[in-house]
Amino acid sequence: MKLIHIHDRDNVAVLLEPIVKGQTAEISGQMVTATEDIDKGHKIALTAIAKGENIIKYGFPIGHATVDIAAGQWVHTHVIATNLGDILEYQYQPDVKQDIPAVCAGKTFPGYRRPDGRVGTRNEVWIIPTVSCVNRNIQLIAKAVTARYADAAIDGIYEFTHPYGCSQMGEDQLTTQTILANLVNHPNAGAVLVVGLGCENNHIAEFQKIIGKWDPERVKFLVAQEVEDEIEAGVELIGELITYASSFKREECPVAELVVGLKCGGSDGFSGITGNPLVGYFSDRLIACGGSSVLTEVPEMFGAETILMNRATGQDVFDKTVDLINGFKHYFTSHNQVVYDNPSPGNKKGGISTLEEKSLGCTQKGGVSPVVDVLPYAGTVSQKGLNLLSGPGNDMVACTVLAAAGCQIILFTTGRGTPLGTAAPCIKVATNSDLFAHKANWMDFDAGRLLVEPRAKVVDEFFDYVLAVASGQRTKSEEMGFREIAIFKNGVTL
């Protein structure tokens, strides 16, 4: 049988292929015999582990044994429990690596330079509703203009529906407005049509206050109640916006202009061995070249948060990271939910047993670079380097908040597979080669190659692939037309 022993301190190994009871293998100089059938991606005990003793993976505890575990036994949810608790106090113990080598070699990509200096990886026209009441209207506008302007010199016309914009109060309404305003201002949008109903809380006059300064050639507004035929009026305005957006052409831009989101979903036992480390290697290289990356999914930092905290560039960033973690824990407890009710059924089927195990794999997407800033939900990136962003683990909400933060591309690792897409191109990274082959219509890159090929070769090819997407190559989710947004909600609906 084939195993991988991730860290010298680990008392479990991960199976690279299924095994049956009685099979024996040598690993780290010792023999281990399976006491039962165990699936690939799952854990096998390398030594006897006493009840109450910690299970160690990645060199860190991922929980404790609830019974005595024999060497060769399957280690999963039936014999392991989390060590996680509620809100904790933390001490800053800096462990900041500043010497990550840059391997840029003058790498550039052809992007769209915007008047504000930012760079887009796409030059699209977006239609954004202020309120859900006009969702169908903007779909009809998009359908009409896509046919009429099929040959336009842009990268496409897309609408983004959502269920909010009215009957919201306070923080929820501001959250909706801010996410939508960030999308209006996104560099991948060459031009934007904002469509309102006319009587909603988030009516256009109020929404304009959140957008801030805008170019009337780039952003146009339509109030459906004020025109006789809002579909035809929308089509006419889109024609004007296409004329403006078509004036932008790709030009060579340094990779330092990239802001890349880091996301995982449907993780399996290989996520922390292949896909997430691969994304981490990319993130470190991009940051060394002057670029930025953004890590979110705060609940999937629980159990690994001190690794990120101690990489903070200073006490202020450390304090913001503590607030990020404990604030999200408070969100859970304020709704009478435990903070460790994770992983999902799909995660467990793939071999992940506890939230600590999931988090120790998840946070590897951030590589080893210093944490330079911590952003609130709906915040936007202003610091070069690795940023932490408040947001839940939910795939659609997390991808939306990454796009709204200014990410022009999102790297999405998965061991189970998902076709999801959002406002920014989502590169799907398969954590195992079987998934990459099985769902070729969903997956963009096979990180399972790290198990059989030199790491440097795979990382180089992945870096070049991301730059190809930044240069205009379409992802599988783009080809399939998956473009949705979802906005976090925490309050009362009237």
TrEMBL record:
Swiss-Prot/TrEMBL keywords: Hydrolase, Lyase
Record flagged with keyword Hydrolase: yes
One Pfam family per UniProt: GD_AH_C
Gene3D superfamilies named in the record: 2.30.130.110
Start and end residues of each SAF domain: 10-81
GO terms for MF: hydrolase activity; lyase activity
GO biological process, one term: D-galacturonate catabolic process
Family, per entry: Belongs to the UxaA family.
PANTHER family (alphabetical): ALTRONATE DEHYDRATASE, ALTRONATE/GALACTARATE DEHYDRATASE
Full protein name: Altronate hydrolase
